[in-house]
Amino acid sequence: MEARKKLKRVLSLFAISAKMDLLWLLRDTKYAIAAMTADMISNISVVSGVWLIALRFGGIGGMNVDEVLFMMAYSTIITGIFILFGSGNNIHISRIIGRGQLEHLFMQPNSLKVQLLTSGFGPFTGSSNLIAGCILLIISIIRLQLQITVWWIVMLVIYLTVTMVTIVARAYFVSTAAFYAPVAAEEIATTAIEGTWQLSTFPLSGMPACIQVPLLTILPEGLMAWFPALCLLGKPPLGLKEYYPFAYALILALAAGYFFRKGLKHYVTKGSNRYVPYGFRR
Amino acid sequence: MYHTDFAVNVKNVTKTFIQWQRDNTGKGLLRNLIKPEKLKITALDDISFSIGRGEFVAYAGPNGAGKSTTMKLLTGMLLPDSGDISVLSLSPQKQRKKLMQRLGILFGNRTELWWDHPVIQSFEWKKVVWGIPDDVYRRNLDMLTELLDIGKLLKTFARELDLSYDVLIRSERITFEYFPCFKHQVRFVEHFPLHLFTRGLSLPMITISPVSSFFRIASTAPTAAVEFPIITYFTSSTPLLEHDRPVGTAGHAPGRTFVRFYAKFTFLYSPVFRRIDSPIRAGQDTRIAPDAPVPVDHYDAVHFRQCTLNTAFDADRLIAVAARYRKTGL
């Protein structure tokens, strides 16, 4: 009963975010369409650049053109999901912490988790990349003549979820710094996320191991699209198992959870040190 | 252990902050690199006070006095170093979500007033987030529409007015500055606690205020708490803020002193505040006759000049409203 009540609450919060997103779209449709189109063109431009290189040279590092397209589709879908659920700085969490806006969340009678999960939901203005990614995915699947089974679709969904967990966990992990240095670390999540976008669309196949390994361990850029795409194509690279992204996401999420809670405790115990004798940041 | 006979109960609460110091000299920069100097600021030092149901309390003090810190402790945003806090018999630190269902708080932020939507959208958002029943929401909204016919004001209160709180905590700036004149302030004070909230007189309302706004509140809010240490503070040479514009540097210590003294002095209901150079003794009757001239201090002079004030009428009304509230010793 309690679980159903909680689920209903979460759904109602998603619904009000969706409604407000739709109303915003309908209120200023021209601007909204322009923004969505620009968003879509921008993202497709990023992935099409890599795809055109693959087209010109008949593939990149052992990945053929259609496999590159498949990877680009995966990357675009990830971007789409990110924008779909992260329109309200809820993933760029260091902005909320650094600006002292976390307190605003404390005023609401919902858990922080629920608020952060639901507050950035924008299905109408934020779905353009997801749609574009799905179209690219279908095209690449047809060109690759992949045999699509229910299990494969389940695996696709799981990989997408794992990638999102990795992105969010990394953003939250680095954002912990904003609890201690709110001004300096206000945009640290943006730095981490933008870095992800820039490197994650490039196929690492053919690169030396000294580049591949750090991008699968220290910086998880290789896990954003390259590694999961190859796993879904049945070719996990570097002799690693298909479940490597799961293990990585789990460890990162646990670490992020631990340090974020620690930072939050520091925040509510000590207060924000943006109040300093040489000027403060509101 | 939490007391149930008060809406708000704060007992022996202490809160300290660590402030990093900076030294711009070469030696200082080097020292900061190796071992930064930190200063311990005692924002609240063993404070205790209680607020009963139905009281309307102004919690005033200069910048850095610890007003906002107190409110953040009352709402579970910060943890105290020591002491007990209970609001509506709930612990703000342990039962935040449950308490937030019944408590309204308004700081200087506007995150709940969605900037790219009409005001009504913010109301609807709050309805969902707070789970307000349809009938309560509709009734409060109708009431608001009728009561607050000042567009600017309506927007200002968008975040709180559609709710039925048990306790309302608010910052002063977004409260009183938007009232175009004294009459509107009176009207607001008269109607707000009585009609806006379903629980009517049982609503404790805490207004926190820096010194500049305190006069406005004290001048207009018939049941505002007027504290003896505040008067002492004003008559001292300590620099103050004037209409939110600094006229000097506000110190930290006087505020803390005020907070410490808060619980010890009589809760006065002063329909119209006296001049700042007229110290009020604790327990002194500060009511002013309806035909008495309006005491205008230099802080509120501009404000009063903007208004066409029917002194006697408004003073009567203020006293009438004040009489509806119980006079309480804190």
Characterise the protein shown here.
- The complex is a heterodimer of chains A (about 280) and B (about 325).
- Chain A has about 280 residues and is an all-alpha fold.
- Chain A has one domain.
- Helix content of chain A is about 70%, strand content about 0%.
- Chain A has 13 helices and 2 strands.
- In chain A, α1 crosses α2 and α3 packs antiparallel against α7 (about 130-145).
- Chain A starts with a helix and ends with a strand.
- Residues about 275-280 of chain A have low confidence and may be disordered.
- Chain B is of the alpha/beta class and about 325 residues long.
- Chain B has one domain (about 10-325): P-loop containing nucleotide triphosphate hydrolases (Rossmann fold).
- Chain B contains 13 helices and 9 strands.
- In chain B, α5 runs antiparallel to α8 (about 180-195) and α10 packs antiparallel against α11.
- Chain B is flat, with a radius of gyration of 21 Å.
- The two termini of chain B are about 20 Å apart.
Given helix and strand content, the structural type of chain A is mainly alpha
The assigned structural class of chain B equals: alpha/beta
The total beta strand count of chain B reads 9
What is the domain tally of chain A? 1
Total domains of chain B, how many?
A: 1
CATH-level-2 architecture of chain B = 3-Layer(aba) Sandwich
The greatest interface between two protein chains, and residues involved on each side, is: A-B, 29 and 36 residues
Question: Strand percentage of chain A, roughly?
Answer: under 5%
CATH topology of chain B: Rossmann fold
- Uncertain runs of chain A with pLDDT below 50, 5 residues or more? 275-282
SSE pattern of chain A, N- to C-terminal: HHHHHHHHHHHHHEE
